């Protein structure tokens, strides 16, 4: 679980790169080896490995070695914690948008919605 600022920073740092987000999308479908993660991104094995290390540092990915294969799997709890953190801002903006909608309705002469 993301329990402190450093862990939350690591999650957002990991999510900041489009290649790492693409890797997480692949891993959401199931375990992949590094070659499978690298292929759609036209990325070398060493480059993919560096990205996976960032994901591992954020506890978003678990890697196991089976012979010569490095198999990665998604570890989603840190994503849930990051989502909880961002939810507080979503609630803020939803309230602001509701207020804006009401103001626009008022300016157009529409009665405010009930409920």
- At CATH's second level, what is the architecture of the domain at 5-78? Orthogonal Bundle
Question: Quaternary state, please?
Answer: single chain
Counted by DSSP, the helix tally is 5
Overall pLDDT: 89
User: Approximately how much beta-strand content do the residues carry?
Assistant: 5-15%
Number of extended strands:
3
Structural class: alpha+beta
Low-confidence stretches are none
The termini sit apart by 37 Å
Give the SSE string. Answer: HHEHHEEH
CATH class of the domain at 5-78: Mainly Alpha
Placed side by side, the strands forming the largest sheet appear as 1-3-2
- Biggest beta sheet attributes: 3 strands, antiparallel
| Overall geometric form | elongated
Q: In CATH terms, what is the fold-level topology of the domain at 5-78?
A: Arc Repressor Mutant, subunit A
What is the CATH superfamily of the domain at 5-78? Winged helix-like DNA-binding domain superfamily/Winged helix DNA-binding domain
Percentage of residues in helical conformation: 55-70%
Gyration radius (Cα, Å) is: 20 Å
């Amino acid at each position: 679980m993301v329990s402190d600022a450093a862990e939350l920073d690591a999650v957002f740092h990991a999510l900041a790169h489009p290649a790492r987000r693409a890797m997480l999308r692949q891993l959401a479908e199931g375990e992949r080896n590094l070659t499978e993660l690298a292929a759609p991104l036209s990325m070398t094995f060493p480059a993919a490995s560096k990205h996976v290390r960032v994901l591992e540092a954020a506890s978003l990915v678990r890697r196991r070695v089976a012979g010569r294969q490095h198999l990665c799997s998604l570890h989603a709890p840190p994503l849930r914690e990051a989502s909880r953190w961002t939810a507080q801002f979503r609630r803020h903006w939803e309230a602001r948008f509701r207020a804006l909608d009401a103001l626009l309705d008022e300016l157009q002469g529409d009665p405010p919605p009930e409920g």
